[in-house]
Every structure is written in C-alpha cells, then in structure tokens.
Write a structure and sequence with these properties.
- By secondary structure, the protein is α+β, with helices and mostly antiparallel strands.
- It folds into two domains: 159 residues, Aminopeptidase (3-Layer(aba) Sandwich); 161 residues, 3-Layer(aba) Sandwich (Aminopeptidase), CATH 3.40.630.
- Helices cover 30% and strands 27% of the residues.
- Helix 10 links the parallel strand 10 and strand 11.
- It is globular.
C-alpha cells in the first residue's frame, strides 16, 4: 500500500530550460497556430515509423482543445534555422487521477534530421515535464510515465531506455480481410444488438470504463476526451455495435474510418477502436457477437479490411479470440514505462 504522496516520491525540476542542440536554434511551446506544422511533421515521420496508418490532423488539434492539456507547457517544438519544424515532443497527464497518475510521452523527429541527437534532447525535456506533472499530485497513488513505440523504431526505444524507461508490454496490430466469410451471431436471449447512437454516449462510457477496469495500463476515460472521440469525425455509428440488456450497455464494439489510411494500408478499411464487455457479463459470447456484427456492417458498407490493436497478454484472452474471428497479426509495438 502506498501511503506517501506522489509529490514526495518524484524528484522533478522546478523550472525547465529549453533543450540544447546545435542544429536546432529555436525551441518553444506549442500554440494552436502550430497544428498544421505538427501534423505535417507527424505525417512525414509516420511514413517511416508506421506506414500502414496515419495520424489525423483532428487528433493533433484535440491537444489544443482538451481542458487537461496545456500545449504551451506540455509540448516542446524544435525549429531549424530556416523555420522548419524538426521535432515535437509532449508529456500529457491523463485526466483521470483517482487511482493512479499516468503521463504519456509522444513525439516525432523529421526523418531527414534523425540520428543527430535531436530526439534525445527533446525527449529529455519531455521526461522532465512528465516528472513535473507527477510531482504536482499530492495524493498517495501510483505514478507512471509511459511511451509507445513501434517495433521498427528501435532508435526511439533506445532513447527512452536511456532516460530510465523499459519495455513492459507488447501490442499487436491485427488485420482481417472482409472478403472472407463473416459468421454473424444472433443476440443472446434477453439482449439486443443495436448500432451506436450519440444519445447513448455516456452509457457507453460507463460500460467502457467497467470493461477496462482490469486491463493493463488502462485508466477510466472522462467526459471531455470521450466526447472528442465519439462526437468526432471518424467514429462510424453505423459500423459500431452495442449489445443491450434492457437499456444497459453490456458489450460494445466501436469502429472508425479514416480515409487517409486507405492508401497506406492498400484497401478501404475500418479501425476497431474499442471492444469491451462489462465484467459481470463476461464468458457469455458477447464479444464475438458485437465484433461479428461490426465486421458484417463494414463489409456491407464496401470496406475491405478491419484493423485493431490488442495487448498480447490481455487477461481476457482477446488475442486468441481475434484469431478465431479471422484476424491475423501484422505489426507490433511496445510500451516503455517507469513506475513511481
């Protein structure tokens, strides 16, 4: 049991000096005027780091709109002498801090300027900002700094390891060809299958939080980022599936479509963002029921592939379930963490 506040356990600098690098003469915090430049940087990096998917502009723009993020203090941007954005790095404190505090490190260096120490300088600053976040919390809860890295981005993992993070978990991307038959399942007795509807947003949030309470690394989602996701431009209610007992959401499969990914993946596809079953209704076949309905809806909408990511050590055995439903593993990514 932890009985000492995070603020007393985490050493953090009182002030953050700008990173120093001879090829990056200007560093500063981010403003909303930087959204397009940051998006262009992440797009260039993504073509090398994860060529099968893109980071939407709207996802970056959310960082400048969500109330728990202060881009001017949480993000550092590095510019070359010609004003080109060479690097961006952020430390985002998760808005839910009831049971744990978690800071996610994110960032990119333009591929043309890598292996010069720019990423090392940016990530060192970002890690110190993460420590500041944790040290601001005066309650006795666990603290964590985490960074996701594609398996192919070994340089990023090496930089994270040098500042004290270590690989704790692996995730696998899985893809299903929707040309293969989809075994559709009827709703179990006493339940009904319905597409997602905006008026159920908070009921679905409650089901999501219950379903993920025992998932590794998961903290409860809160209303503002949840609304940004479900009310955003990519969620497809017609492809997303809920299983109801009366008016209670007991299982969910939420799917989105980002057409910018189609060329990268080589086919029109849907990404399955969330699959969950509330904890007192597990082991009843609810997960394959909602997934199958979403796969059939995606096929009927003319999409050719479905994509998802899964924790390789999920306590629910999700990896095996997805294989039985026709998904095949492709890429892997790791989560590097440090706990306090």
């Amino acid at each position: 049991m932890i009985d000492t506040p995070l603020s007393a356990r985490v050493p953090a600098p009182a002030q953050l000096a700008a990173p120093q690098h001879p090829q990056v003469p200007a560093w500063r915090g981010a403003t909303s005027d930087d959204i397009d430049a940051v998006h262009a940087l992440f797009a260039a990096a993504g073509r090398v780091d994860h060529p099968t998917y893109t980071v939407p502009r709207e996802e970056i723009a959310d960082h400048f709109a969500l109330p728990h993020i202060d881009p001017a203090r949480d993000t550092i941007l590095g510019f070359g002498g010609d004003g080109e954005l060479l690097a961006a790095s952020s430390a985002i404190l998760h808005p839910s801090r009831d049971t744990a505090a978690k800071v996610i490190l994110e960032g990119a260096v333009h591929p043309a300027h890598r292996r010069r120490g720019i990423g090392t300088a940016a990530l060192a600053w970002t890690y110190d900002r993460a420590l500041q976040h944790l040290a601001s919390i005066d309650v006795p809860i666990p603290g964590e700094v985490a960074m996701y890295a594609e398996e192919r981005t070994t340089d990023a993992a090496a930089i994270a390891e040098r500042i004290g993070l270590s690989t704790e978990r692996w995730f696998t991307t899985m893809v299903r060809d929707l040309a293969e038959p989809v075994l559709e399942r009827a709703a179990p007795e006493g339940t009904r299958l319905v597409p997602y509807a905006p008026e159920r947003a908070m009921d679905v949030l409650a089901a999501r939080n219950d379903a993920f309470r025992d998932h590794w690394g998961s903290l409860p989602s809160v209303e503002a980022p949840w609304r940004a996701f479900v009310d955003g431009p990519y969620l497809r209610p017609d492809l997303s599936t809920l299983l109801l007992e009366g008016d209670r959401v007991v299982a969910l499969c939420l799917a989105s479509v980002n057409e910018e990914d189609w060329e990268a993946l080589g086919a029109p596809n849907t990404y399955i963002d969330l699959i969950g079953v509330v904890r007192d209704r597990r082991a009843r076949g609810y997960a394959p029921t909602v997934i199958s309905r979403t796969l059939a809806a995606a096929r009927d909408a003319g999409l050719r592939k479905a994509v998802l990511d899964v924790d390789t050590a999920s306590p629910t055995g999700a990896h095996g379930l997805y294989e039985r439903l026709g998904f095949a593993a492709t890429d892997r990514s790791r989560v590097l963490t440090r706990h306090f």
